[in-house]
Each structure stands twice: as structure tokens, then as C-alpha cells.
């Protein structure tokens, strides 16, 4: 059993907070919408569309200073990042969006879109990190106004092996996540769709694969050092030595300093499987996490197994899983939920929120006990993030 | 005399709605750099960091499609920027 190392609770965190409600930042293929709730999270008000016609991959609020960043592009135009410092009322474009270094090579990389945005460590208040397609890591030190290539990854001698140019998702290969250890700004993880999980202990200067025992069933060696498709990774907030992963090939848990992932998805019902795009650790209980499984058999439909949508929750770090489907359609519910479109808030009880590619937003205010549809008729949803009400 | 750059609908929020703007330069690249001075960020939405015209954008100089920004433009040239039908 790994030694539990917990993040220290600040005085502010332990002071009882009066809930104000949440705002869901919803990114879609055709713009952004904000849904804000009352304190009970039962009544919702819609604000949008913002940037109608833009492909919005991710909208994130910085819990440190309140800045909102939005990764966007259009069907024609190159990628950009929009920035708001007044809760989304006004937006300005980044002066220098993420872009690879100019090169004399014939097929030099160009950022197609920014996919993932992460505020930096608490000790670096104006730092943000971004992951892009093609896979690239970028950093801003001026609160998102300008971005620099992180050469420790982008110019790494192993880059071409970790990110083969002919591989990737239907929208292109991704650097789909950046995580920062809350205890140490220099300790980072990232996830890619073509290389798996990587770790840095020197603030992104160097990286190494962290994929032991993670299957890559689409490769001749099913357990390579790198080459996995890490759909989603998450640190358990109160126990940052625990990572959860929803991989293309299953659900995993890793308790540091161990190096070998355990496939906790083997405990999921066989008829459902353990394929999906997201895993959400509970904000306070390291043994609790939620997944939204989708059919990964045959031609990889990526829809709710058997047309019956459900969230699955573990309360024992993956030893067992329970189905949570109250409120969802009982049949013909072919939900696809993209990896950034399933999220939670930090409220008690925890709220869960998901957005489907069919343009529906569903919410649970009681940790998955029951779900309700709170929005429909939106464009294809790419991302949902829950923040304290704007 | 200066080059006239015609702005597609997708980019008119940069030019405050202007459908055409003057530009100085002897190449498409220089003209785009010139208008980027006045309308920051517009160039990167059309040309990527490797100086390539983006996949779903089209540029024409005096009616002829160009595939690289180094193409020459005359002082009276008309440069049209369009979003391609493949985009959207």
C-alpha cells in the first residue's frame, strides 16, 4: 500500500463556504455557452452563444485570479486563445497564441488547435500551460497573453518517437492534458494520444514515459514503454500521489512512488467494459472516482453500451464499481461524451456534469445518484468545466 | 498607390468591419505583415508559423490563386483573402 501523502488544507479551504451555485463553461463545435445555477444547482440560466461559429475546445477559469481562457479556432482560421478578465463579459485575443518554432524543414509543425488549458501551480499566479494538436506543450507567464513553446517536450530528441506524425485521433494527435502536482510546481504530468503519460520533475525541462502495465492493444507489443493513448489522467486532489487514468485500453490507477499502473477497469462489468474518455476523482475522497463508459468493441462506436447511458462510480479506489443511471434514458440513449465534457464541481455534495456530442447537458447534484437534463439543442459539445458561479 | 487587401467575412472583426484595407509591400507576405501592424493577430489566422497559407484559406493576387506568401504583388495589386469551401 502506497504511503498516503495528502495536500495541506489551507485555512481558506477549511472555512465553511456558503454555496453560490456553479457556472458551466460549455465549449462546442459552434461556439461557447455558459450555464449558471442558483445555490441549489437546480435552476439554470443560459448565457450565449459566445463566439458563434467558433470551434471551442476548452474554456477554463483560473481559480487563482479569475481569468478565463478559451481555446478556439474556426473552420477556416488558425487557432487562437481568447482571454477575459471580467467573468466573460469582454474578451481579447492572445497577442501571441501557441505556435511552434519556425523551421527550415519542409513539414514544420504548425498548431492546428489548442486542446487543453491548465492554470499553473499556486506559486506561479500568472502561469498557464496549454496542450495542442499536433502534440505540443506551451506555457504562458503573463496570464495567457502570450505563449512560448516548451522545448523540453516540443524539441525533445524523442519527440518524433513519442508523437509519430501519422498517428492520432480523428481530429489529429493530441497533447491532451497537463497536470501540475499541487505540492511542487516542478512536478508535472502530461497525457498524449500517441505516446501515453509522461512525467517531469524539473518543470518541463525533461520528460520520461510513465506507462508501465498500460495496454496498447493496437500495437504489436501490447505493453510498450510509450505509444499508449492516454485519454484522460487526473490527480486525486487530497492525495496527489494517486493518479487515475482513463486510457483507450481501460481504466487504471497509479499510487506513487510506484511506477506500475493497475488496471482497475477489470472490475467493471464485462458487458459494459472499461473504455471511455474521462475519469473524475472526488475532490475530497481519494478512493472515489467516476467514469462514463462507452462502447469500445468492434468498430469502436464510442456510444453508451447497449444504448443505456450510465456513470460508474468506485468508492474503493477501483476494487468495485456501481452503476448510476437514474434519470438517463433507459434505451436508445446513444451518448458520446468527449473527454473534456465530463466534469465535477467542488461542492458538497459533489455535482457531476456532462455534455454529449448530441448537444445535451446533464447534471447530478448528488454525486451521481440522479441525473437531469439541463440543456438540449446545443451544437456538438467539446468541453464542460464547472466553476464557482460567475 | 498601395496594395488593396480584400478582407473576408471571417476576418472583419479584426478590421472593424472594413471589407478592404490598403497595404504596403512588394510581396503578399509583406502586405500581410503590414496589415498585421494595424490589425494585430490577423496574419496568424491566415498564415501559420511556418509561413504557409492555412489549409482552408485561399489567397489570390490579381485574380490568380497563390500558394505561398512570397509571391510578388505590384503597388496596384488586389489581394483577395477567402475562406475555402472546405472550411466551415
Task: Write a concise keyword list for the protein shown above.
heterodimer, A: 390 residues, mainly beta, Methylamine Dehydrogenase, Chain H, four-stranded antiparallel sheet, 3 helices, B: 88 residues, alpha+beta, Ubiquitin-like (UB roll), five-stranded mixed sheet, 2 helices
Put the structure in a nutshell.
The complex is a heterodimer of chains A (390) and B (88). Chain A has 390 residues and is mainly β.
Itemize the secondary structure elements and their pairings:
The complex is a heterodimer of chains A (390) and B (88).
Chain A: H1 11-14, E1 22-28, E2 31-37, E3 44-50, E4 55-61, E5 68-73, E6 80-84, E7 92-93, E8 113-119, E9 128-133, E10 136-140, E11 148-149, H2 151-154, H3 159-162, E12 175-180, E13 188-192, E14 196-200, E15 208-209, E16 232-236, E17 239-247, E18 250-255, E19 276-281, E20 289-293, E21 311-314, E22 322-324, E23 342-344, E24 352-355, E25 361-364, E26 372-375, E27 381-388
Antiparallel strand pairs in A: 1-2, 1-27, 2-3, 4-5, 5-6, 6-7, 8-9, 9-10, 10-11, 12-13, 13-14, 14-15, 16-17, 17-18, 19-20, 20-21, 21-22, 23-24, 24-25, 25-26
Chain B: E1 3-6, E2 20-23, H1 28-38, H2 42-46, E3 57-61, E4 64-66, E5 78-83
Parallel strand pairs in B: 1-5
Antiparallel strand pairs in B: 1-2, 3-4, 3-5
Structure write-up:
The longest helix of chain A is centred in the first third of the chain and has 4 residues, at 11-14. Chain A has one domain: YVTN repeat-like/Quinoprotein amine dehydrogenase (Methylamine Dehydrogenase, Chain H, 7 Propeller). Chain A has helices spanning 11-14, 151-154, 159-162; strands at 22-28, 31-37, 44-50, 55-61, 68-73, 80-84, 92-93, 113-119, 128-133, 136-140, 148-149, 175-180, 188-192, 196-200, 208-209, 232-236, 239-247, 250-255, 276-281, 289-293, 311-314, 322-324, 342-344, 352-355, 361-364, 372-375, 381-388. In chain A, the strands form seven sheets. A four-stranded antiparallel β-sheet of chain A has the order 3-2-1-27, with no helix packed on it. Helix content of chain A is 3%, strand content 36%. Mean pLDDT of chain A is 94; it is low at 1-5 and 9-13. The N and C termini of chain A lie far apart (41 Å). The radius of gyration of chain A is 19 Å and the shape is globular. In chain A, strand 21 (311-314) and strand 22 (322-324) form a beta hairpin. Chain B is an alpha+beta fold. Chain B has a single domain, classed as Ubiquitin-like (UB roll). Chain B has two helices and five strands, in the order ββααβββ. Chain B has a five-stranded mixed β-sheet, with helices on one face. In chain B, strand 3 and strand 4 (64-66) form a beta hairpin. Chain B is globular. The A-B interface holds A 74-78, 80, 93, 95, 97, 99-103, 108-111 and B 8, 10-11, 40-41, 44-52, 54, 56-57, 83-84, 87-88.
Amino acid at each position: 500500500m502506497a504511503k498516503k501523502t495528502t495536500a495541506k488544507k489551507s485555512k481558506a479551504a477549511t472555512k465553511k463556504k456558503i454555496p453560490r451555485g456553479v457556472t458551466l463553461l460549455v465549449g462546442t463545435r459552434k461556439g461557447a455557452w455558459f450555464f449558471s445555477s442558483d445555490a441549489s444547482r437546480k435552476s439554470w440560466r443560459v448565457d450565449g452563444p459566445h463566439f458563434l461559429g467558433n470551434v471551442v475546445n476548452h474554456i477554463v477559469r483560473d481559480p487563482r485570479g479569475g481569468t478565463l481562457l478559451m481555446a478556439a479556432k474556426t473552420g477556416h482560421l488558425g487557432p487562437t486563445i481568447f482571454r477575459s478578465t471580467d467573468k466573460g463579459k469582454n474578451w481579447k485575443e492572445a497577442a501571441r497564441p501557441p505556435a511552434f518554432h519556425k523551421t527550415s524543414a519542409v513539414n514544420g509543425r504548425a498548431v492546428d488547435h489548442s486542446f487543453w488549458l491548465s492554470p499553473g501551480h499556486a506559486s506561479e499566479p500568472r502561469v498557464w500551460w496549454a496542450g495542442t494538436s499536433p502534440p505540443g506543450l506551451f506555457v504562458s507567464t503573463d496570464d495567457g497573453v502570450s505563449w512560448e513553446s516548451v522545448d523540453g517536450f516540443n524539441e525533445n530528441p524523442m519527440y518524433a518517437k513519442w508523437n509519430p506524425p501519422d498517428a492520432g485521433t480523428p481530429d489529429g494527435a493530441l497533447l491532451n492534458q497537463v497536470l501540475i502536482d499541487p505540492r511542487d510546481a516542478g512536478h508535472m504530468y502530461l497525457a498524449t494520444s500517441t505516446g501515453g503519460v509522461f512525467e517531469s520533475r524539473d518543470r518541463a525541462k525533461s520528460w520520461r514515459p510513465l506507462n508501465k502495465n498500460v495496454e496498447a492493444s493496437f500495437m504489436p507489443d501490447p505493453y510498450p514503454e510509450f505509444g499508449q493513448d492516454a485519454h484522460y489522467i487526473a490527480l486525486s486532489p487530497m492525495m496527489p500521489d494517486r493518479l487515475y487514468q482513463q486510457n483507450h485500453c481501460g481504466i487504471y490507477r497509479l499510487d506513487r512512488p510506484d511506477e506500475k499502473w493497475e488496471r482497475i477497469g477489470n472490475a467493471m462489468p464485462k458487458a459494459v467494459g472499461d473504455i471511455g474518455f474521462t475519469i473524475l476523482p472526488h475532490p475530497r475522497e481519494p478512493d472515489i472516482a467516476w467514469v462514463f463508459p462507452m462502447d469500445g468493441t468492434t468498430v469502436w462506436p464510442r456510444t453508451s453500451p447497449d444504448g443505456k447511458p450510465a456513470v460508474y462510480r468506485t468508492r474503493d479506489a477501483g476494487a468495485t464499481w456501481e452503476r448510476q443511471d437514474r434519470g438517463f434514458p433507459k434505451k436508445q440513449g446513444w451518448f458520446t461524451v468527449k473527454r473534456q465534457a465530463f466534469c465535477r464541481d467542488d461542492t458538497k455534495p459533489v455535482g457531476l456534469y456532462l455534455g454529449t456530442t448530441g448537444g445535451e447537458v446533464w447534471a447530478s447534484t448528488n454525486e451521481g445518484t440522479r441525473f437531469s437534463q439541463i440543456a438540449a439543442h446545443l451544437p456538438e459539445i467539446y468541453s464542460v468545466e464547472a466553476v464557482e458561479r460567475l | 498607390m498601395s496594395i488593396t487587401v480584400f478582407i473576408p467575412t471571417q476576418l472583419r472583426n479584426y478590421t472593424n468591419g472594413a471589407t478592404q484595407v490598403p497595404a504596403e509591400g512588394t510581396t503578399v507576405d509583406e502586405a500581410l505583415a503590414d496589415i498585421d501592424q494595424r490589425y494585430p493577430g490577423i496574419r496568424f489566422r491566415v498564415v501559420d508559423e511556418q509561413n504557409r497559407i492555412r489549409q482552408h484559406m485561399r489567397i489570390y493576387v490579381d485574380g490568380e490563386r497563390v500558394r505561398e506568401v512570397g509571391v510578388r504583388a505590384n503597388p496596384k495589386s488586389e489581394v483577395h483573402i477567402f475562406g475555402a469551401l472546405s472550411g466551415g
